[in-house]
Amino acid sequence: MSEVLIVSLPGDGIGPEVTHAMQHVLEAVALKYGHELSVEEYSVGYAAFEATGTPLPDETLEACVRGPAVFLGAVGDPRADGLTGDMRPEAALLKLRSELGCFANLRPAKVDEPLVAMSALKDEIASGCDMVIVRELTGGLYYGTPRGNEGGRAVNTLVYDAAEVERVARVAFELAGRRRGHVTSVDKANVLEVSQLWRSVVSGLAKEYPDVRLEHMLVDRAAMELVTNPARFDVLLTENLFGDILSDEASAMCGSLGLLSSASVGGKVGLYEPVHGSAPDIAGRGIANPIGAIRSAALMLSYSFGLQSEAEAVERAVALVLAQGLRTADLAGPGCRAASSEEFANAVAEAIT
Predict the structure, then answer these.
(1) Hey, what domains does the chain have and what are their CATH numbers?
(2) Which of 33, 95, 130, 248 is catalytic?
(3) Which residue out of 12, 187, 234, 244 is catalytically annotated?
(4) Which residue blocks in the chain are alpha helix, DSSP H?
(5) Which candidate in 122, 161, 220, 268 is catalytic?
(6) Which of 33, 95, 130, 142 is the catalytic position?
(7) Which of 291, 278, 273, 307 is nearest to 343 (CA)?
(8) CA-CA distance, 30 to 26, in Å (whole number)?
(9) Active site (annotated) includes residue 244
């Protein structure tokens, strides 16, 4: 029996609801596959600010650094609008990523066949879409210096070194080797020296992965292909700014933010969270979609615990429940059966095989 130890940060808004749903599914996985599930819960975000005066208490951070895996529900609250700087709930997430050394963000974007009609794209374009965007998370334009805004002139600096590029590219190649063997590296090498370095480093690393096909693509073409032929992509590798934009574009094809998962990896401790925000307008109503949280847990099983079969079991269970027509409010439509967050999670838990 192996231990699955999770540091749980339910956070704000619908965060506690989807976190509870995710945990229920993991309990079913642990029972089915003979693992011991241990969950340590700590506060974060506005909930933590209310209780302690800071959105990331020392106790929470210390537990997260111990790991081995952290699950975050969501952070953010309208009551925090008057707060600034490190007191804002979102600052807790940025600091957490930094402290955990998470340099690669994984954003799967898959169109479930029962939900093709809900995509922002035409059915024939959305069908078959199944990609993962690997975004460099700790470098690039968001972190480069000098930076500033003074006297009517603003400056941000785009910086990467070869080691930063290589480590995130290796994540993409390893992932592609377990999928369909295709990496599309996105850059702007026709005008940016940083992208020229990026392309050179990625090309050199590709020699270590002869079974993975590498193509380079300029970011403007990649943005176009995402809405005209998304099924062509397997793993997209991109720097921080481009990945931020392209991953949000890709999410529109899936039908609902509630479906989307993410993993921030690379350090000793992985950070897993659904893509959606805290959605305070629907908090406490039991209608939040828990799929993004449940699929984030599947990523956690795979990346932090090496439990690939268990991760695949979670994905199969979600697909089966969707195929049976069960839907939360954001996915409601003709011929579907309405379900609360808890009811949907219960159905997924029962479908674990």
Answers:
(1) 1-113+254-353 (3.40.718.10), 130-252 (3.40.50)
(2) 248
(3) 244
(4) 15-33, 46-52, 58-66, 89-100, 123-126, 162-178, 193-206, 219-228, 240-251, 291-303, 308-323, 341-350
(5) 220
(6) 142
(7) 291
(8) 6
(9) yes
Residue corresponding to tokens 């794209």: 121
Q: One of 77, 188, 234, 303 is an active-site residue; which one?
A: 188
Annotated active-site residue 188? The verdict is yes
* The token pair that represents 181 in the structure block: 């063997």
Tens digit of pLDDT at every position of the chain (353 positions)? 689 999 999 999 999 999 999 999 999 999 999 999 999 999 999 999 999 999 999 999 999 999 999 999 999 999 999 999 899 999 998 899 889 999 999 999 999 999 999 999 999 999 999 999 999 999 999 989 999 999 999 999 999 999 999 999 999 999 999 999 999 999 999 999 999 999 999 999 999 999 999 999 999 999 999 999 999 999 999 999 999 999 999 988 998 999 999 999 999 999 999 999 999 999 999 999 999 999 999 999 999 999 999 999 999 999 999 999 999 999 988 889 999 999 999 999 999 99
